[in-house]
Amino acid sequence: METKRKPSALALDLLVDVVGGALYAAGIYSFASPAEFAPGGISGLAILANHFLNIPIGVCTLLLNVPIILLCIRTLGRSFFLRSLRTMVISTLLMDLVFPMFPVYTGDRLTAAIFAGALSGTGLALIYWRGSSTGGTDFLILSLRKKMPHLSIGNITIFIDGFIILMGGLVFGHIDAVLQGILMTAASTVVIDKITNRFITGEMALIVTGEGERIAEGIMSSVGRGVTALNGTGMYSGDGRTVLVCACNRAEATRIHAIASEADPNALVVLLPFDTAYGLGFQPHGV
Hints:
4 strands, alpha+beta
């Protein structure tokens, strides 16, 4: 539940919402909209609605979010919905009240597309990092990723946003609008994937060894992490092996590798990066 989050976590969430929302709003309002092309997602639809009806982009984004929220709230959960609602409100206020006070970019459209993608992608990556979103197709994207976690957020975005980008070309009446929408989406995709990969919170060490007790003792005493031991059999040799499983942070993973290789030079050590871990030593359940 949102109310159970620590004050420090809530403060960081709010700071990231403001910074990420500002970057996202700058990309959409200050670069994409004046260049007359529609990026993917609800923001692209909001730009098209603004073009026809002169509805503020932020307000239109909130209105378009309603049916999508109703479809995805069960999959993503109440806590995620509440965090995202806060993020959406902050982004809307920044886009409709703050950024209209500043001049927009009216230069080269190619440059506008690149900067729109880089700014919005950076803002979204920060928001995703704190377990929130700006709503809209973000909800659809993260719902799909929750069911198929092996898929890249960026790759899912490309498929969902393609149709909206094509609509932008038809509305604005020139092929450049499609190309600019594609370029912005590509830039945003690269930035999102690069930044979110930097936010990996830890690694899962998987060690197959004949010196299980020795390595486990070294990890627990030197690193201070718990270790789970599983019994295994080498299918080629038929010999018994111990499989050790240990969740740790990235710095600890290097130390665990050193402990394992010193105790058993023939040990198989696999380090698997993960986005989030819940339980003792990591985030509490329900956050």
